[in-house]
Structures are given as structure tokens and as C-alpha cells.
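Pasting as-is:
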Amino acid sequence: MLTPIDIETAEFKKVALGYAPDGVDEFLNKVIVEFERLYKENAGLRDRIKNLEESLGYYKSLEESIKSSIVIAEKAAAETKQTAADQASNIMKKAQLKADELLLDANRQKYQLESSISELKSRYTLLSSGIKGLIEAELEFIDQSREILEEAVPGMEEAAAAEEEKNLIRVN
């Protein structure tokens, strides 16, 4: 590539019928100044392109990293969602089992209470019938005893009443 120094140090052969050296030198000086400006601008643009390419590479790398992070985050979110759904399902199953167990236990207790109540009713009926029968038998025995005594000892009732009257008088 041609540099401004190459132009400045260039030498030309002089010929008899050639161009005027002052005019050529003046033009070459203008070309040197303009070429130097363009050369510096070109170098600056190359540096800028290099920086932009580096930035572009950085941003492409960052984009890939972000894409990768998004994929990982989506995967983690899906796994978290699935885990939460699984846990919720397990909690529901455990709650249902516990509810079924409590219901079964309550039904068992209800049956036991109903059986106890039924047994107590049966025992009450049996005992009340037995006590009624016993009382009736005793009352009948008393009535029969009185009749036997009255037949065996006439006037005993009057003697018992008199004895009772004596006891009342003594107490007063």
C-alpha cells in the first residue's frame, strides 16, 4: 500500500521536454496532504471497524449467553412447575387418605356406640322386666303370706294395729 512518505520521497527523472518541476512539486504537495488526510481517516475507520467488530462479537456472545440462560430458565420453570404439580398431587392424595381414614374411624366409633346403646337398651329392658317380675312376685308373696297369717291367726291384723299404736305412744 502506498503511504504519504512514499509519495513525499518519490523522485522522478528529469527530461528536457518534461513538465515544470515547481508545478509538479506543488501538485505533489497537495496530493501528499490529501493522501495523508485520507490515509489517517482510513486508519481511523479501520480502528473503528475493528472496535465495532469486537463489540459485535461481544454482543453476539452476550446474545448466545442470554439465549442459553433463557433456555435454562424455561427448563427450570417447567421443572419447578412440574415439581409443584407433583407435590400438590401428593398433598391431595395424602389429604384424601387421611380423610378416608378419619371417616372410617368415625364410622367405626359410630357402630361401636350404636352397639353399646343397643346393648344397654337390651340390658335395661331385661333388668326392668326382671325387677318388675321380682317386685310382683314379692308383692304376691306378701299378699299370700298375709292371707295365710290371717287364716292361721284370726285377729292378727287388729293386734298388729294395736302394737303399732303402742309404739307410736311410746315415741311421743
